[in-house]
Design a protein that fits this description.
Shape of chain A: elongated
Oligomer: heterodimer
Distance between the termini of chain B: 92 Å
Shape of chain B: elongated
Largest sheet of chain A: 5 strands, mixed
Radius of gyration of chain A: 35 Å
Number of strands of chain B: 3
Order of helices and strands of chain B: HEEEHHH
Helix content of chain B: 25-40%
Number of helices of chain B: 4
Number of helices of chain A: 24
Distance between the termini of chain A: 92 Å
Number of strands of chain A: 15
Largest sheet of chain B: 2 strands, antiparallel
Helix content of chain A: 40-55%
Number of domains of chain B: 3
Structural class of chain B: mainly alpha
Strand content of chain A: 5-15%
Number of domains of chain A: 3
Strand content of chain B: 5-15%
Largest interface: A-B, 64 and 58 residues
């Protein structure tokens, strides 16, 4: 969009007038920008707040000025595009007729054609003044019209715009057996999840790239809010096979949108000056049938979400102050036409210009055609793709460097529709749905590791944290072994302690009756009871977590979150009881050599300290990186199992010795 | 098998009451349905019937030929009952236009707003 105030024509790309039809292909039903934007706002009033048609009629000279609202415009004849309420509220609205009339510059007539209430004859584009012939069948005898409007728009009306737009952004479709959605199958409408208020502000989710009215982000109900409250009969999730920490790290969409059935646009190619959106590899066109697996990206809340990692290519010119100024489509078209014979579209899912030779040709063409363009202080054409920026040096040689400019920002479109039934969600068939080298969620990283394509992708990872997912999976590969190795460790420690105890001299466990009489004895007894019960509680909940016994957690604690909170609260109580014992010993029994709270095992203090530190870290898990959290969890688990093994061996040995002595043997 | 027993007077009254109740219920349902159908036939589910109006606010009446070749204006037609200016403040309509400015972004001066009208 051109600025309001411009000094010369070359500065003006799209005016608000040309914006309405920009990018339209009415022959195939493809709308221009103004097709989807329903009118009102910038399609009705200029940047000074005046109606375009009235102002241009009063000041016809504006069309010859460099005003970004009026330059070469025909508002006085086309009229303005008022808000078309019927696009959303009239079932059966003809979006195709709207697009067709907008393309003919019949701006104020588009609502008549779209609503189907009358025919529009004539075209402003052709220099005519259109005439309307209303269909009298829609009118009562008193001349009033009868429309069957819907207060809550039908999903079909939303899809006029969000169908094609979100198909290319994220492979979204609705009412589509080839790309189903479980909510769609349950007759849920767009407006159920995206209700509006009187001001027509519709509830939004969180979208990575769209920035309009970000203050309204997150105003719709989340998956959790609907499914935990049973809103509209939503089933309550149990997630019995899913480790609780996964629910902290993964957005619901990661598992519940495991694949899509129609190709999104994988990239945008503007090399010819016309936008070409190309499909994912394997699809014949954007929206064509293709089973594909979304990429995964970390959101602002540090959870992973599925995305379409869209890859646009861009041409800019680097200014003297280092700013990369994007080139207009018409500037690219002019350059492309001079060298078009040298290019051939090789692969459908690639931009036209991809080899270094082709890039060099195009950059040279741009340098030649932009030479006298007053828009630039300096002409230095650049080509941006996949985190790399290419330009020609003073000798005309192509150079490439890591792109740190705005052009390298990721274009990850969130995927939040086309939700699969529970039985198709990742994890429904077990951990190997994800934790396998060929599993879809990590395929884009692992499969490409040794392929040429990987290097191209890796450039993108310089500027984001997506690579964490890859490394995290490397750690997870050891998880399967952990379930066996740690119990083995337990058995080994247990055996070792038992062996040592059997050879050691008798060192009875400290008992209260060996202590000096004191009024603090009941307190000590209570603290020891709390400590032992705490230890037992921590051991049980810890084992539930380790072996992922969600069903037991739900029986005893209702939810994993509650169990986790109780676990770390239990840990605090356990540590407090030990500290309490220690303080009492120092204050009231200073002459005692043996700590009254001694576990009876050497190394207990070290292990408990390790567990306290790692456990404390995990209480604040949201502030930790996945790698640190994983290490904390591993250390905590190992220390817990060693401590449990030592304690179990001691108890076993003590009981055995007691039984043996009762049978008359020597201790 | 025992002999059939004739219904008592009170039983007959009960049966009459039951049929009467059912009858009243059926009539009530039919009336409600009829009212509903009437509403649908009389106009839309939400707006009833109304005059179309051109951009000057004049009535368009194709049956009398009054302004019958002119396009209708949503501002004047829908806006006769609804607050058009309030509604068009919604982000679907504005798309950043309410913030558009030549100096919106100093680092990227080609970005004029946060919406699709002016973002690129």
């Amino acid at each position: 969009m051109a600025k309001k105030n411009n000094g010369f024509a070359e500065q003006i790309d799209l005016t608000s007038f040309s914006w309405v039809t920009a990018g339209a292909s009415p022959d195939v039903g493809k709308p221009g920008c103004g097709g989807c934007h329903p009118g009102g706002g910038g399609m009705e009033y200029d940047r000074d707040g005046f109606r375009y048609d009235e102002r241009l009629r009063q000041n016809p000279e504006l069309a010859a000025s460099f005003d970004g609202d009026y330059f070469q415009s025909k508002w006085d004849r086309s009229g303005v595009v008022e808000a078309d309420c019927l696009i959303c509220h009239l079932p059966g609205y003809s979006f195709k007729e709207r697009v067709k009339n907008l393309d003919m510059l019949n701006y104020q007539w588009a609502i008549v054609a779209g609503s189907g209430v009358g025919l529009v004859n004539g075209s402003v584009q052709a220099g005519e003044t259109p005439k309307v012939v209303y269909n009298k069948r829609f009118f009562n005898d008193d001349g009033k019209i009868v429309f069957s409007l819907e207060a809550e728009p039908n999903s079909g009306n939303c899809l006029f715009c969000h169908g094609p737009a979100d198909m290319l952004k994220r492979g979204f479709s609705w009412n589509d057996h080839g790309n189903h959605d479980i909510h769609n199958a349950r007759n849920i409408k767009c407006s159920h999840c995206h209700p509006g208020n009187k001001e027509h502000q519709l509830a939004k989710g969180n979208e990575n790239l769209s920035t309009v009215r970000d203050d309204l982000d997150g105003t719709m109900r989340t998956c959790k809010q609907c499914h935990e409250a049973g809103y509209m009969g939503a089933p309550k999730p149990e997630h019995r096979k899913v480790r609780p920490n996964h629910l902290e790290k993964l957005g619901c969409e990661v598992c519940h949108i495991p694949q899509l059935g129609r190709s999104s646009a994988f990239g945008l190619d503007i090399s010819t000056g016309k936008v070409r959106l190309y499909p994912r590899s394997g699809a014949k066109k954007v929206g064509g049938e293709l089973i594909w697996f979304p990429e995964v990206s970390m959101g602002l809340d540090r959870k992973l979400y599925p995305v379409n990692a869209f890859r646009p290519n861009l041409f800019t010119s680097k200014e003297v102050d280092g700013v990369y100024v994007p080139l207009f489509a018409r500037e690219l078209e002019k350059a492309y036409k001079t060298v078009s014979a040298q290019f051939k579209q090789e692969a459908l899912s690639e931009p036209l210009i991809s080899t270094t030779g082709e890039i060099t040709v195009m950059l040279n063409a741009l340098a030649a055609t932009l030479k006298d363009n007053p828009r630039f202080q300096r002409v230095l054409p650049c080509y941006h793709r996949d985190g790399v920026v290419y330009h020609l040096d003073t000798a005309g040689k192509l150079t490439m460097e890591k792109d740190t400019s705005w052009a390298a920002e990721l274009n990850n479109f969130n995927i939040s529709h086309n939700v699969a039934p529970t039985g198709m969600a990742l994890g429904s068939k077990g951990c190997a749905d994800c934790h396998a080298e060929r599993a879809a969620i990590f395929a884009s990283w692992l499969n490409g590791k040794h392929e040429e394509g990987k290097q191209k992708l890796m450039a993108r990872f310089f500027v984001d944290e997506d690579s964490r997912v890859y490394y995290l999976d490397q750690l997870h590969k050891y998880n399967a072994a952990k379930r066996y190795l740690i119990p083995l460790l337990f058995a080994a420690v247990f055996t070792l302690i038992l062996f040592r105890e059997s050879r050691a001299k008798v060192m009875p466990m400290p008992t209260l009756d060996r202590l000096s009489p004191s009024g603090m004895l009941p307190v000590v007894a209570l603290l020891l009871l709390v400590r032992n019960v705490g230890f037992l509680f921590l051991a049980c909940t810890g084992l539930f977590f380790f072996f992922n016994k969600i069903n037991l957690i739900q029986i005893f604690f209702a939810s994993p979150e509650t169990a986790m909170t109780l676990h770390w609260n239990g840990g605090i109580v356990f540590v407090a009881s030990i500290l309490g014992c220690t303080v009492i010993r120092r204050l009231f029994f200073p002459k005692m050599n043996t700590a009254i709270c001694h576990f009876g095992v050497s190394g207990g203090k070290v292990l408990i300290t390790m567990m306290v530190l790692t456990g404390a870290g995990m209480i604040f898990r949201k502030q930790l990186t996945p790698e640190i959290l994983y290490i904390c969890s591993l250390v905590h688990t190992v220390a817990a199992f060693v401590l449990m093994a030592m304690y179990a061996a001691k108890i076993y040995h003590g009981i055995s010795r007691k039984l043996y002595s009762l049978q008359g043997g020597e201790q | 098998m025992g002999k059939p027993v004739a219904a008592s007077h009170s039983q007959v009254n009960d049966i009459k009451k039951t049929f009467l109740t059912i009858g009243v219920a059926i009539i009530a349902v039919c009336c409600l349905g009829g009212v509903n159908a009437g509403l649908v036939l009389a106009g839309s589910k939400t707006c009833g019937s109304f005059f179309l109006r051109n951009s000057q606010g004049d009535v368009i009446n194709p049956l009398t030929g009054e302004n019958a070749d002119q396009p209708f204006s949503s501002r004047k037609t829908c806006g006769a009952c609804h607050d058009y200016d309030l509604i068009t403040k919604g982000f679907h309509f504005q798309q950043g236009w309410e913030k558009i400015s030549d100096t919106y972004d100093k680092k990227m001066p080609w970005v004029l707003s946060d919406g699709m009208m002016g973002k690129h």
